[in-house]
Amino acid sequence: MKDSDPLESGPPPSSTDAVSAFLAGAGDVAANDIRRVVKLAGRVLGASSARLLIADYALESLRELGQNEATGDELAIDGTLIGRAFAEGSVRTSGEAPTVVWAPLVEGTERLGVLELEFPTWPAESAAALDEIVRLLVLIVISRRRYTDEVLRSRRSQPLSAAAEMQWDLLPPLTCSTGSVSVSGILEPAYSIGGDSFDFALNDDCLGFAITDAVGHGTSAVLLAITAITNLRNARREGVDLEAAYLKTGIALERHFGHSAFVTAQLGELSYERGELTWLNAGHPPPLLVRDRTYVGELVCPPSLPMGLGGEVRAVVTEQLQPGDRVLFYTDGVIETRDADDQPFGLPRLADLLVRASLDEVPPAETVRRLSASILDYNDELSDDATLMLIEYHGPDGPS
Question: Which of 103, 138, 253, 396 has a 20 to 30 A CA-CA distance from 384?
Fold first, then answer.
């Protein structure tokens, strides 16, 4: 724990007093000064020092939020106490006098990083106030990161390509959950991602989603992905059905890029009430279904042509899901990743890892992070983008 910037700690506050002091103080802080808000959070909790550690784009490490870039040592998420706080979404402590406390920053279910606090002692009053202060801090970070580059600069553990910058700006939050459904996605290679993308929206009656893979690499592929995702997003918001969304997006791709560019995709909706997963396949690998923590197999949908090649929709299919079902969508770069002996990562390995995570009751966000890490462990120099999107159906009256 760095203590180069100690706070003026006082007696531990009551939860109500801490919240009131934090809200009053945060209102006086400039919109772009997130680090000052972090120090304020530590001060009202009675900590002697405080810092915010941000997860990098690949969700492999944590580093301290800095003004121009992340600062301090790079802390691995796997195999560390602070990493466990992030991965498991639980408060962790170390030592007694002083005590270091790590509290995960989670917005909904999107994981931003970890708040690290040091206390001369860890009083019950501070523990009681911590959850409320962290919730408020998360909301402030989410709202104020639009006004500054500090957070996005601090997410980089290596330079981010311009293509990847565009792609990350296109994405929704990596994960979100409601009482009925959870959805989580991840992209690799995080710092040079090209044509892969995904999108989702949690609306009142259903989850709308898409996963896409544009032909090519780099900026040209990202421009295809942007056109595809933007048209699919527009169609969803206009209430257009899946078949019409496919056709509309294909026409837009043909108009702007000609007949040699295309995007494979899967488009779908999941009804919360009925548990019906309705989707169409535009030349994409079929998704995997895990039910009762057992691999059932691939979900089959006769493939239409990739969008942009002038094809018609061959089929829109519906799969009846049960509470607890997990459906994993992925791009072909996942199973086609090869090791040093030129052996592919393969579908059986992917299915096995998904089942293991389900047996261990690993939440969707952490499941896709671990799957992605396994792919990179297999070969950290991917020849193609590898994107995962996991949907877990809780049921119409699932846990909130």
Answer: 253
In percent, the amount of the chain with pLDDT more than 90 equals: 64
Q: 125 with 186, same domain?
A: no
Nearest to 398 by CA among 155, 174, 207: 207
Structure tokens at 241: 């059905």
- Please check whether residues 300 and 199 belong to one and the same domain: yes
8 Å CB contact between 350 and 334: yes
Are residues 76 and 186 located together in one domain of the fold? Answer: no
- Phi (first) and psi of residue 128, to 5 degrees: -65, -35
Question: What single string gives the DSSP state of each residue in 89-119?
Answer: T--EEE-SSSEEEEEEEEETTEEEEEEEEEE
The answer to the question of residue 197 being in a domain is yes
pLDDT band at 293 (very low <50, low <70, confident <90, very high): very high
Is 3 a residue whose pLDDT tops 50? Answer: no
Could you tell me which residues are beta bridge partners of residue 200? Answer: 209
What pairing do the DSSP bridges indicate for beta strands 71-76 and 181-188?
unpaired
Burial class (CB within 10 angstroms; exposed 0-12, middle 13-18, buried 19+) of 334: buried
Same domain flag for 101 and 216? no
CA proximity to 56, closest of 194, 218, 189, 221: 189
**Domains in the chain, number:** 2
On whether residue 279 sits in a domain, the answer given is yes
Q: How far is CA 101 from CA 14, 42, 148, 177, 304, in A?
A: 18, 11, 27, 26, 52
Q: Which residues, in sequence order, are CB contacts of 118 under 8 Å at separation 6+? A: 1, 3, 47, 48, 49, 50, 98, 99, 100, 101
Model pTM score: 0.89
| Rg, the chain, Cα only | 22
pLDDT of residue 2: 47
Q: Which domain holds residue 95?
A: 15-154
Q: Which of 154, 186, 209 is the endpoint of a domain?
A: 154
Of 59, 24, 83, the residue nearest 374 (C-alpha)? 59
The whole-chain average pLDDT of the chain stands at 90
Asked, for residue 39, whether it belongs to a domain, the answer is yes
Residue 1 lies in a domain: no
Backbone φ and ψ for 86, nearest 5 degrees, come out as -70, -50
Q: State pLDDT tens for residues 208-244.
A: 999 999 988 888 889 999 999 999 999 999 999 999 9
**Phi, psi dihedral angles at 118 (to 5 degrees):** -120, 130
